[in-house]
Amino acid sequence: MPTSDVETIEAGRLTEARLIEMVFPEQTNHYGTLYGGQALALMDKAAFIAASRYARRAVVTASSERVDFHVPVRQGQLVELLARVVATGNTSITVEVKLYSEDLLTGERQLCTVGRFVLVAIDADGRKSPVLPLNVAAQGNHQP
Amino acid sequence: MPTSDVETIEAGRLTEARLIEMVFPEQTNHYGTLYGGQALALMDKAAFIAASRYARRAVVTASSERVDFHVPVRQGQLVELLARVVATGNTSITVEVKLYSEDLLTGERQLCTVGRFVLVAIDADGRKSPVLPLNVAAQGNHQP
Amino acid sequence: MPTSDVETIEAGRLTEARLIEMVFPEQTNHYGTLYGGQALALMDKAAFIAASRYARRAVVTASSERVDFHVPVRQGQLVELLARVVATGNTSITVEVKLYSEDLLTGERQLCTVGRFVLVAIDADGRKSPVLPLNVAAQGNHQP
Amino acid sequence: MPTSDVETIEAGRLTEARLIEMVFPEQTNHYGTLYGGQALALMDKAAFIAASRYARRAVVTASSERVDFHVPVRQGQLVELLARVVATGNTSITVEVKLYSEDLLTGERQLCTVGRFVLVAIDADGRKSPVLPLNVAAQGNHQP
Amino acid sequence: MPTSDVETIEAGRLTEARLIEMVFPEQTNHYGTLYGGQALALMDKAAFIAASRYARRAVVTASSERVDFHVPVRQGQLVELLARVVATGNTSITVEVKLYSEDLLTGERQLCTVGRFVLVAIDADGRKSPVLPLNVAAQGNHQP
Amino acid sequence: MPTSDVETIEAGRLTEARLIEMVFPEQTNHYGTLYGGQALALMDKAAFIAASRYARRAVVTASSERVDFHVPVRQGQLVELLARVVATGNTSITVEVKLYSEDLLTGERQLCTVGRFVLVAIDADGRKSPVLPLNVAAQGNHQP
To answer: Staple D111 to which of A4, B32, C81, F129, CB 3.0 to 4.6 Å?
Structure first.
């Protein structure tokens, strides 16, 4: 393996994170469907990664908005999460997270739910800390 | 140990569930505070148990309302969750969940966040299924 | 959410802890019943929390007494643990733990086993450390 | 949330999977670096997803080729895995997996290791089963 | 790799099981020592494997005898468990389990605790089922 | 329990590690067989323990050689790993790991795969560090 150089991806350059998760038995109820709370945990994780990558600062979740669960995810399906920074405040970052299910064998794929999470950047003392304003024009370069 | 008899606690009799959770490293960010998504997962779990106990039917989470995280929970603290059925519809159960942190050594205890979750009862075919209406007068008998 | 004030619950005030656990596949044998060792781990956890809360000191388990498993807990049931400080020595706390199973759908609830654990309070150097003597009269105020 | 239609992604259409994983304490040695075996497990997981998506059949890992670990991944970094189907046989799928580390705060990103895994498609009886030949021209459409 | 033939190890032939476990952060308290309950869970697991191997029947734990914890196990140490069938009844198997700690860097190794677990063989209907009587003379052949 | 003395097992004395693992649902695919990547993770863990015990130094995995998976391991079987130091370089330790499956009920036992892992000893600054040369004559004393 040729060892690669270190690349540095600065704050503001990445606005997305794409995660794939397998659904395990301990994340499902007795009916084999993903608990709502497990879906929320995965969505917050995707939001955390997208906001951290965008800000290159420590971030914590300040709030999650209302989330509706219309389409269940079943054990044996994949969950794919697409998190995207959609707005910034002085110290806050709003991330929209789409959760898709994908059946590995049939290839059926469906948007199951969408949520918005607001995260706040903090400094080493836990105080709110400024973030780069979102430059909508720069949003084309999503993937490292 | 004297083996105890089986007691049956019917639908409608219990309206609360009280859970204690330890906060583990894998549930916290690099700053040692519980991820928002992990808090949501614990809150949904408490809501699921309270609603199942109330309805004695299969239930699934239909929605989580907006949740704000004002007080962080730190590694090495307990989380105590108090879930309470606060409303019922034809097939739905609304559960309010309070999340407290408790420091085992100092004894400091604090309400960290409150959330509401709506769960729906389903039958064996996954169709919505009626639930007992909440009898506010009966709410005194919370613990088994 | 209105941020709540910090309450401090001093040593000696709380003598109980009540925990609910879901039974997951990885805690059960091939016959779908909770391993005895998993039951012991949950019981010790409840004893640890009750003793820590009582003493507001670091505690470690010094011994577990004989435990008999007469009633199996099955996957898809809840386990509820009720831990109660029943005696204190100079540096030790004896906690009795009752383990109940509860079937979420049928509402059947049963005492499965009872155990006693002795925990010892230790200071920062790991030396045994005195604990408040149990005041039986004060035992009415169990829940925070 | 508007419920989305079900899309079906047929065999042969997707040739990639992109996964992001957080590095947890239990995946690292005492020096805070990811165990080689945990890296292999993540790489095989990415290969499994890429091969399943490509074939839309049950697949099992038949072999992993030699993997060298030159750049350690540290706790508190992300791992991003990029798995890509690079060859097919009658019943086998060869997947190349690149493992990158990314430091959330500094934005430093580095290719840590590359591995190749051969997976075999199997039918319901566990017998080897044919897969679509890889059409190199079709490889532009990687992401669902 | 040359595929090996299948060997069959009949009931009564193996009387021991030797397990090594790493101690992970989530199994330790805030002082970095293994919870007593986690030690009990590991010991019961070793007893389960030794009794299953001996009987080649389904077994469940009927009781654990008093266990004292005199020597703490610390994070970053190994736990080695040596379980040995020491007695049989008509349907029961008594297993003695020794738990050793081993520091990987210093090589210090110490017997931390010893426990006895009684397991009962059950048939497909959950009824007690006879086990081979322990032939003390046969105990020389411990390892497969 | 009589507390035992501390024994010290010096570098070079132990050349083997024997581990038993249960196969859990979350380590298996939908067909109930252990993922190849989970087998690799268990094999690397066994190699890590054997190399650490041999060297009594911090070790990290430098490479894993080609591994073929011919015999699947099924849920409900044991995995037994036998890791053995087979060669040493100036700073490296080569460990061969055999992975056996064992069916607890039938007693069927089979060699499933063999792999070789090279680990490197490192000092506190992460630099390569010399290891004792393997003395083949000394290999008779494998178990502590």
So the answer is: A4
